[in-house]
Amino acid sequence: MHERLTNWAGNIVFSTEQVHRPKTIAEVQETVAAADSLRVLGSGHSFNRLADTDGALLSLAGLPRTVEIGSDRTSVRVDGGLRYGDLAAPLAAAGLAVHNMASLPHISVAGAVTTATHGSGVRNGNLATAVAGLEIVRADGELVTLTRADTDLAGAVVGLGALGVVTALTLDVQPAFELRQYVYENLPAAAVRDALAEILADGYSVSLFTRWTGATIDQVWLKRRDEMPAGDFHGATLAGGPRHPVPGMPAENCTEQGGVPGPWHARLPHFRMEFTPSSGEELQSEWHVPREHALAAIEAVGALRERVAVVLQVCEMRTIAADELWLSPNHQRDSLALHFTWIADTEAVLPVVADLEQALAPFAARPHWGKVFTTPLGDLRSAYPRFADFAELAGRFDPDGKFRNPWLDALLG
Q1: pLDDT tier at 2 (50, 70, 90 boundaries)?
Q2: C-alpha span between 222 and 220 (Å, rounded)
Q3: Which of 114, 108, 103, 119 is nearest to 86 (CA)?
Q4: Average pLDDT, whole number, for the chain?
Q5: For the FAD-binding PCMH-type domain, which residue ranges apply (predicted)?
Q6: How far apart are CA 321 and CA 80, in angstroms?
Q7: What is the b/e burial string over 165-181, where b = at least 16 CB atoms within 10 angstroms of the residue's CB?
Q8: Cβ(91)–Cβ(67) under 8 Å?
Q9: Per-domain residue ranges of the chain
């Protein structure tokens, strides 16, 4: 079918109107084999031209929803079009959980994994680290299965859509658990300076929110298995009611706070599945720095606070554990991610993005693959020790560049 599509934020209008919506894996294989140029369309929560093509887009939304729990109850197989929020209910009903979720439960599992999207927690890897297996339709239409027994899996998981169409994933699961979510306000700058590592480790998941309009952290979101002791948190005070990270936005869109215990899937995301957290009128950028440079990176951004605050809705800082996935921004290093939700004004935002990249360059910052950044894609190759191996893997799966686009051409060469 033909239709004019944009990404979720509306800042990208796709270069094609041709969209394939197969309903079976066999139809996916036939479509891929017959195509000259193809990219996969997920939930559209990407802010650059990673998913764009002048050929055809392929959506997996029409595939049958699949949630197959393994007989040993340590894994679940899901289809490539499933969203995390739709995975949560059947997993929870079976007494199981994934290790983490992103802020939004609305994003697709395959899309989140292929761009190394993450939640938070010093001991929690990004969402892609849960992948135990992939089923990929490669350029010739053949369905290939990779498991952890295959050395290629570590390269294929964060694959940027360069290897083919991910039709199914097998994820690690664990017994279901409960969390309590607390929001504290006005964390003093002195606490960040003197106790940052302790603050970031003081919960299963920890997020620091700031608008860079003052010296304090506006909000601290703690997701904990146990109850918080009464009193202040490093000088921050417990919020007097439900809060939204962006001032003026309705707090009812957010997951329950106030320390009320609840299931993992109703606490790990910041936003409820039944609400759309915003209208998409925003841009997003994010950079990952080694955790040992966390304070220095925060101070470097703080030096630009006047430039940043003018075009910012909110900045969130989270931690992610190291992994061995070839194109993961957390490859071989525990990380702090600095995430910026901007106003929907590309012309005003891009110069600030460039300034931040320069400020964070001394810390070997790696941008999130699906966000807005200005660093030339070719310059990112040296940031990933296994990049040459990934390029070779992409060449084997897609020798004629069927899944390539100008964005990937600039990255892969």
Answers
A1: low
A2: 6
A3: 108
A4: 95
A5: 12-176
A6: 25
A7: bbbbbbbebeeeeebbb
A8: yes
A9: 67-176, 178-375
Half-sphere exposure for 185 (CA within 13 Å, toward CB):
11
Residues 6+ apart with CB under 8 A from 319: 120, 121, 122, 200, 201, 206, 291, 294, 334, 335, 336, 337
- Amino acid type, 109: V
CATH of domain 67-176: 3.30.465.10
**Percent residues over pLDDT 70 in the chain:** 98
The Cβ of residue 388 has, within 10 Å, a number of other Cβ atoms equal to 11
Amino acid at 36: D
pLDDT for 7 equals 85
Based on its alpha-carbon atoms, the radius of gyration of the chain, rounded to whole angstroms, reads 21
- Confidence class for position 275, pLDDT limits 50, 70, 90: confident
- Give kind and range of the element (H or E) at residue 205: strand 205-210
The number of beta carbons lying within 10 Å of the beta carbon of residue 289 is 23
Q: Residue 80: how many CB atoms within 10 A of its CB?
A: 27
147: DSSP letter: E
Q: Each residue of 301-318: pLDDT tens digit?
A: 999 999 999 999 999 999
Judge whether 121 and 319 are in contact, CB under 8 Å.
yes
Per-residue DSSP letter, 65: P
Say which CATH topology domain 178-375 has.
Alpha-Beta Plaits (3.30.70)
Query: Which one-letter amino acid corresponds to residue 309?
Result: A
3-state class (DSSP) for residue 122: coil
Q: Which two tokens stand for residue 286?
A: 């994010």
**What separation in angstroms does the CA of 52 have from each of 161, 162, 241, 404?**
11, 12, 42, 10
Cα-to-chain-centroid distance, residue 184: 24
- How far apart are alpha carbons 48 and 408 in whole angstroms? 12
Question: Cα–Cα distances in Å, from 363 out to 169, 254, 287, 336?
Answer: 33, 33, 10, 11
DSSP 67: E
Cα 413 to its chain centre, rounded Å, is: 25
C-alpha 196/C-alpha 179 separation (Å) is: 22
The owner of tokens 């306000």 is 185
Residue 122, judged by CB atoms within 10 A of its CB (0-12, 13-18, 19+), counts as buried
**Integer CA distances (angstroms), 374 to 6, 11, 172, 383, in order:** 21, 15, 35, 15
